Amino acid sequence: MKWHVLRPLWVAIGLVGSILVAQQFLVPDDFGVHGRNFTYGYHRLSNIQEWKDFPVKYRGRESCVECHEENVAKLNSSTHAPVECENCHGPSVNHPDDEEFLPLNKTRELCLRCHAFLEYPNSARGELLSIEDRRHKRRYECIKCHNPHDPKEDVEEEDSK
Amino acid sequence: MTCSRRDFLKNAVGGSLVSSLPLSAFTLISQAEAAAALDEAKVRWAFLVDTTKCVGCGLCVKACKNENEIPYDAAVTRTWVERYVVTNDGKTHIDSPMGGRDGFTSDKIRDEEIDPDDIAKAFFVPKLCNQCDNPACVQVCPVGATYQTNDGIVLIDREWCIGCGYCIMACPYGVRFFHPEKKVADKCNFCYHRISKGMDPVCVENCSFGARRIANLRDPDDPVANIIRTERVSVLKDEYGTKPHVFYIGLDAEVR
Fold first, then answer.
1. Beta strands B80-87; B212-216: pairing state
2. Which residues of B touch A90 (CB under 8 A)?
3. Is the pTM of this model over 0.90?
4. pLDDT confidence of B21, banded at 50, 70, 90?
5. Number of domains in chain B
């Protein structure tokens, strides 16, 4: 009588047991409550360090100035001073070791991000010096006439040809 | 049932002593542990967005995608910029093509021509993860793959995430998405790899207009934290009770 009732019970106990054993091997040691409580802090502790080790790609003007002192100084004294080098030159992560030349973006579209005229009264956009894309030198790259490192300066004759 | 005063006092004192015994087990931590806990609480990251300064250039979105290895041409992004144009007839036109990755260069909104004279107000609103104090996305994670660090940042463990998408559904701000290459949930973490090294998040560094700033709320000398403390700022969807930590200047009721 008891025999066939108990058999599935042993199977169930065996299953639970094997899951518990597998858990011991599969769950990392540093998995547990590390934050403020179980709801928000239940995680693998070493993951925090993994995120901290994520590679930085935009190294900022401080890294550019080490070699390109002249260009940075020019930019800093111009009206384009708030614009980061890497906005146009691209992230400097492997430069100059693995990547000798950065993918410089000289397109009209890049300039138009800020300088396409949009009449927006509650946004700083309306106050920027801007052009109407359709009306202003339609097919030219902006840098033919304007120096992005110092927009107030006239580009020299030989550059504009 | 009689109980003398002596018995009552005896039982009361004895009972409270016995019942407080297991409680003492919870409070026993070493001094070093207590110091470490206090030390970590010296940082609570927050973000300040000044919508009046944003011009919609989208360079923050571009930089974020490059920095955080988000597929550039996929329609997912950790931060994005929305454009709001309210016309005189009370209609609100909202768009964010590719999250504003290529900036806003045309006055057309969703192929609709809008007469400039008809605009009542128009502005840009950058959005990113709010690093909530009560993050709904963390509560729903069934495997403990997303969590809140002691400095208030919500992170995702890419090894542990099973990609079930519960958190993507739970976030009231829609900041989470499914990473098409890593096959896990992903979202903004204030560039945790940068802020933990003392750098600015990449969107902050690449914003030419100072529309985005990062703050440590626990630092009494932090100028941005002082703006959050002393000036009029608001948050998105306060009614959800998630206690978001991205603060906005110049937010409009149209912004949802």
1. unpaired
2. 66
3. no
4. confident
5. 1
